[in-house]
Specification:
Chain lengths: 265, 275
């Protein structure tokens, strides 16, 4: 086994993404931002297309588009007749559709659409893995900085503000991290399934956790199980890898939820 | 324990917070007009007023969560504010124990944290809740925890929004006794927002009666007789408050039961109920 082996690379990349997604997924769940995550990831296709057209690094292009979408959303949320889920729906599907349309008309842009929509982890390169782990390290450092202030804001905003939490900076860093996760996770499970890597492990972990940190740690464990189980399943049954990981994650969640509700009876 | 007698042992300290000529409007609607209010160290000040009077806006301005359109807000330099909101809307998916919630508070020396935590929980009457999950607490328990959290900051000024909401008359009496103790031990100022006039009148040094503008302010016995107060809360309430104040000298047991009044006092009449 070496890094030359595509299975080893896939496992390394998948586990890296799972580690990165777990604590951010918890924050997404606590803030009820699952749909926001979906909007960001849908917009990622637009980032890919624009990146290919302008010859940018794809991760960087996705990051830029994600940030633009976050900012648009923050602006519309402030003064809205429409609820944020409506605005999110418009942004999510509008940007996905725009990405698909641009893909067909921009000259010189060719891509394997299925690989971006559902992931292509078996084609992951060493450079991709480096991106995941370096990006992940930076994300963890930033996350450590905003963890407590963001928790305070989630628990009771007014109390956090009275305590001097800088809301704008904290939330901006969080959105940046979320965009980063979308950018690096895309290759593993694809645009349409990124949100599941964020919320399914966190949801499974909730049943056993007594503290936010334990929940994040357990979510990491569930995420790694889903990624490696899905990879195994895909090799054994010749199923698509990204969807297999989500299926394993969802099955784990169903098991955990069933056990928890039986214990409560 | 005696009913609180704030007037007897109250010596007003330095001004902690003052609002001067505050005007506040939102979306073209005037919410506060020409509000003057101050809280001094060692003083219990209560803000009363009907629904929609702008009480929460005053609190938000005092906490620097809102900026008034006009007027001056002054806080003593380095003022530490402990805030006790009326309620928390907890996210069920976020697992959190009381202890962890209290420790989330930033800027605290970790060395003495455990001790301080014990002390704050004990003083707020919440020491048995230390390891409870936050989302299992009742409204009253949550308020004790929030008070403990505020005390952990060593506040110079404690701001509490409707601290006695949903409490029965015994609970209210206990709460106001606790506030007296806190004010005496810690010499902090306390700003309360309250609906329940009866307890407020008994346990407060100064009352500010608010209805978008400041109707009247001063010691409770003065405010009670003010025409604007009577107009706002009705003749009957004002009269009942007078009775309540009059009967103020009898003793209450720890559980709110009434001990025989000392000779010379008129016999006990109907115990007033909270509004």
């Amino acid at each position: 086994m070496s890094l030359d082996d595509f299975v080893v690379r896939a496992l390394l990349g998948g586990i890296g993404v799972a580690i990165l997604c777990a604590p951010l997924g918890c924050l997404v769940v606590w803030q009820r931002m699952a749909y926001f995550g979906a909007a960001l990831s849908h917009a990622a296709l637009l980032g890919v297309v624009l990146g290919l057209f302008f010859h940018l690094n794809l991760q960087l292009a996705i990051l830029l588009v994600s940030l633009a979408v976050s900012m648009l959303l923050a602006l519309t949320r402030k003064r809205g007749l429409l609820s944020s889920d409506t605005v999110l729906g418009i942004l999510a599907h509008g940007s996905l559709a725009l990405g698909l349309v641009l893909l067909s008309i921009l000259p010189g842009v060719r891509l394997d659409l299925l690989a971006y929509l559902f992931g292509d982890i078996l084609a992951i390169t060493r450079v991709d893995i480096l991106w995941i782990y370096l990006g992940g390290l930076g994300a963890y450092l930033a996350l450590a900085k905003i963890w407590r202030p963001l928790l305070s804001l989630i628990i009771q905003r007014d109390l956090a503000l009275v305590d001097g939490v800088n809301e704008r900076r904290t939330r901006a860093v969080f959105l940046l991290l979320l965009s980063l996760v979308v950018a690096v996770s895309m290759q593993v499970v694809g645009i349409l399934l990124i949100v599941s890597l964020l919320i399914i492990p966190a949801a499974s972990a909730r049943y056993f956790a007594r503290s936010p940190e334990v929940m994040a740690a357990l979510a990491t464990l569930f995420g790694m199980l889903a990624v490696s189980g899905g990879l195994g399943m895909s090799l054994l049954l010749d199923t698509p890898t990204g969807p297999s990981m989500v299926v394993v994650g969802a099955a784990l969640f169903a098991l955990v939820a069933a056990v928890a509700s039986l214990r409560r009876l | 324990m005696n009913e609180p007698h704030p007037q007897t042992n109250f010596a007003r300290g330095a001004v902690l917070l003052s609002l001067e000529k505050i005007h506040f409007a939102r979306a073209g609607k005037i919410i506060l007009q020409d509000i003057n209010l101050s809280v001094c160290a060692g003083e219990i000040v209560t803000l009363i007023g009907p629904n929609g009077a702008g009480k929460s806006s005053v609190v938000k301005i005092a906490l620097n969560l809102c900026t008034p359109n006009r007027g001056l807000v002054q806080r003593r330099a380095g003022l530490r504010i402990g805030y006790v909101p009326q309620k928390m809307e907890l996210e069920q998916t976020l697992p959190l124990t009381v202890q962890r919630f209290l420790k989330l508070t930033p800027r605290h020396p970790p060395a003495s944290l455990e001790l301080e935590l014990e002390h704050a929980l004990a003083q707020a009457g919440a020491h048995q809740l230390r390891d409870a999950a936050l989302h299992t607490l009742s409204g009253g328990e949550m308020r004790r925890v929030l008070l403990a959290r505020a005390l952990l900051h060593h506040p110079d000024l404690l701001i509490m929004d409707e601290p006695s909401a949903g409490m029965d008359i015994n609970g209210q009496a206990e709460l106001y006794r606790l506030l007296q103790t806190i004010r005496e031990q810690r010499r902090c100022g306390i700003l309360l927002v309250s609906h329940d006039l009866y307890m407020v009148m008994a346990a407060t040094d100064r009352v500010f009666c608010l209805n978008r503008h400041l109707c009247c302010s001063g010691p409770p016995q003065d405010v009670r007789q003010h025409p604007e107060f009577v107009a706002l809360f009705g003749q009957r309430t004002a009269a009942e408050l007078a009775i309540y104040h009059h009967h103020h000298d009898h003793e209450h047991g720890l559980h709110g039961d009434i001990q025989p009044s000392p000779p010379g006092n008129p016999p006990h009449e109907a115990e007033p109920r909270g509004v």
